[in-house]
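so my prof wants the structure for this chain in the tokens format not the other one, which i didnt know existed until like an hour ago. anyway here's the sequence
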Amino acid sequence: MGLSTDALVITKPGSGFALEKIQLEEIEKDEVLVEMYASGICHTDLIVEHGFLPVGGFPIVVGHEGSGIVKGVGSSVTNVAPGDGVLLSFTSCGTCRACKSHHTAYCETFHAVNFGSQRPDKTPRAANEQGRVEMGFFGQSSFARDSVVCAASCVKVDRLTEDEMRLLAPLGCGLMTGAGTVDNIFAATAPGSIAVFGMGGVGFGAIFAAKSRGLSPIIAVDIDDSRLALALELGATHTIIGKQEKDVVGAIRALSNGGVNYSVETTANNTVKLQAINSVYKLGKVGIVGTTGTDKVEVEVDTMIKSGASIIGVAMGDAYTSEYLPKLVEEYRAGRFPLDKLTKHYKPEEIDTAVKEMISGQTIKPIIVWR
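here's what i got, hopefully its the right format
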């Protein structure tokens, strides 16, 4: 056994998060010991707790938006060294066609290595008094004060301060997905217009990137007045209250001279998906980010042919994290990615409050601070 540390453990589906002591195993050759500073809370973590997302087993430590300091590295690790400040994101195999072409979010083993939460040889990374604890969710399991992390999940960021680690931890998932949809999937250019459906972390990431690229109008669509007001403050030029506007598509087309060039759908709602598809102008691009895992949407082929629109499924913003996360940090430092306007810090003991305020919409991006 290696280090004794604290972690938020899900004992079984529906059990909630329990702060308890765990023992970490020694790191293997392709792993990194990270002293965690913070971890954003994502809805995906809650889906695991509810038992709706298959993982490697229970009990389990989740968390996949971490940040921290490297304390040790395995013998084959070359991308980080002890003392490096890192942001954490998803892991990948590094050897399949997608990975070799720097599209690691589409790794052939993505679901197995990120949701499986296990080493390839199935040996444990951690244990508590009752026995084995699964650790390795998205390669990191950052809901822990210290964690055994896959090297591929670690992104070194130069001059990363302690305050930045406590604030920027959430960059590794939702915010990166939204921004990456605009930057990487669309490669959006001005002049151009965009509609973003759903003002959560993904939606705000898309808003930030759209503003940085000079798009206009930037139309935010949501059912929450307070989130739309914040969207206007942080980059949107127009807002539409989805629960009040009877013709969302018509309203978007009226604001954008017949339709937007780009639309981003983050809600996993089928009605909203169709709104996103029908809101784009000729040859527009639609990024579908939100899914329940079983949802489907029907689009008339004739409509697609006449519009020439591209409907694109988006995983993790197609981010090549070793290059893209440092770019987002520089966007933040330049004042173009105001993540601090979305976040609230919580102690590990306050996990239940953090989850409650996230679900209610009171907090857009809660962050657990370990140090």
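also thought this was worth mentioning. DSSP finds twelve helices and 18 strands in the chain.
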